[in-house]
Amino acid sequence: MARVVKCVKMGEELEGLDFVPFPGELGKKVFENVSKEAWKQWLAQQTILINEYRLSSLDPKARTFLQEEMQKFLFNDQDIDMPEEFKAI
Asked: Is 16 in contact with 39 (CB distance < 8 Å)?
């Protein structure tokens, strides 16, 4: 049986992630509070940010930026800093 979480992004009980997505407290928080669907949505947004801003996973500033944007997207229901081409008109 799938693990179910009360997803903070979607506002309902949905299937949870199968594993902690990355180490640390933030990874644990995501695992306990974010559904697979919300995580999938974040990964799509993250891909756009990485490609458009040409971010490197080796750059600590890029990792910090992505973590901040992820927290806004998943936990604070805030708009994330999308490139100008992707902003709603």
From this structure: no
- What angle do helix axes 25-33 and 60-71 make, rounded to 10 degrees? 30
The string of DSSP letters for 15-81 reads: EBPSS-SSSSHHHHHHHHH-BHHHHHHHHHHHHHHHHHHT--TT-HHHHHHHHHHHHIIIII-PPP-
Q: Where do we find the tokens 């973590």?
A: 67
pTM to 2 decimals?
A: 0.85
* Domain boundaries of the chain, sorted by first residue: 4-86
Fold of 4-86: YggX-like (1.10.3880)
What span, in angstroms and rounded, lies between the C-alpha atoms of 49 and 88?
A: 15
- Asked whether the predicted pLDDT for residue 82 surpasses 70, the reply is no
